[in-house]
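Methods: holo model generation. Sequences were used as deposited, without trimming of termini or removal of tags, and paired with ligand SMILES retrieved from the corresponding compound records. Each pair was processed once, and we did not select among multiple samples. The sequence and zinc ion SMILES for this entry were:
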Amino acid sequence: MPELPEVETIVRGLKDRIVSKKVIKIEIKDKKVVSTKIKDLLPFTITNVTRRAKYLLFHTNTSTTLLCHLRMTGHFHYPQNKEEVQSSKKYLAATFTFHDNSTLTHNSIRRLGFLKPCTPNELHTLLQNLGPEPLIISKEEFYHRIAKYQTGKIKEKLMDQNVIVGVGNIYAQEALYQSKIHPAKRIDTITKTQFNLLHKHIQQILTHSIQLQGTSVKNYSHLAGKGGYQNHLQIYQKEQCPKGHATNTLTIAGRGTYYCPTCQK
Ligand SMILES: [Zn+2]
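and the model returned the structure below.
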């Protein structure tokens, strides 16, 4: 967490709030998370906020882009009243003040993410090995990119950001459940029909979750509150699948994985 729908929701929230605003002051409280080099850019205007994989990109009126990865617990606040200003001070990493006196804070509970300035070359180097976006990838490309890892386990490759981006532990489990594919299934035993089904379910689940502003389990919140997709999860952290079978768990690539031994083969 967060995965593609959560990062996309945060990006949309930021876009609505801070595009075309000029940053006039930056106070950095946590240098491990927020690079002090950002201050060298002052003053600068945010021209756009976009997403690539699980990265947030703050484009500016300079050639420098601010790159942010939230990891497990990074988040942003754009406080509107005293109460929100107070809660934005929790786990504070940095405060950005705009020309209109509004502020944006970056916060990080576990301090694993980062926010740093990148030149166009640095950005290219950091992002060049990322796989395609799951909402854009065609059925054919999805099949070809994964099928070549014949002896790999399907869930491991779904979560590999160099193969396809944005699908993390929760959505991989949901998509595999809905496609009736066992998460540890060897890739060379998966049929083309099953691949097509998986492609379809990944796109449906991610789209639905974006509509509901993501899944709020543990710490995720976007700029206006919590997401709603946690109410639609079918297998993640469930003791029973929707058909009433007892679920099982196993560890794949170091991550706990729920599956239904009856539904998923
Ligand atoms: Zn089942």
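Helices lie at 4-18, 82-87, 120-127, 139-147, 154-158, 169-178, 192-211.
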